[in-house]
Each structure stands twice: as structure tokens, then as C-alpha cells.
Fold this sequence. Notes:
The chain is mainly α and 64 residues long. The protein has one domain. The protein contains 2 helices and no strands. Helix 1 packs antiparallel against helix 2. The longest helix is centred in the last third of the chain and has 33 residues, at 29-61. The chain is elongated. The two termini are 22 Å apart.
Amino acid sequence: xxxxxxxxxxxxxxxxxxxxxxxxxxxxxxxxxxxxxxxxxxxxxxxxxxxxxxxxxxxxxxxx
Length: 64
């Protein structure tokens, strides 16, 4: 696993947290929630790609 993946996820998390706080203070709670959901979807997409790579590696190692 690359350390770049952790930095990418942490960066997305920090960005989403800041946007959520700014939008909440501006009175746009619905957009803040949509921003948070979009951040979660992006992170889950990245994690699913990495899990897929892991399964392919396991498949090739064990000749399945």
C-alpha cells in the first residue's frame, strides 16, 4: 500500500471538513451535507479500486 493513498484520503477529508464548516456557517446546510456525501463517495471509490487490486494480487499469487 502506498503512503500516497493515505495522503490522498486525508487531503480529501480535510478539504471536505473545511467546506462543510464554511457552508454550515453560511447557512447552507443542505449543500454542506451534499459535499460531505460527495467526499465519502470519492473516498469509497478510491478504496474499492485498491481492494480490487488486492484481490487480483491474491488471485495471481495463489493461482486461483
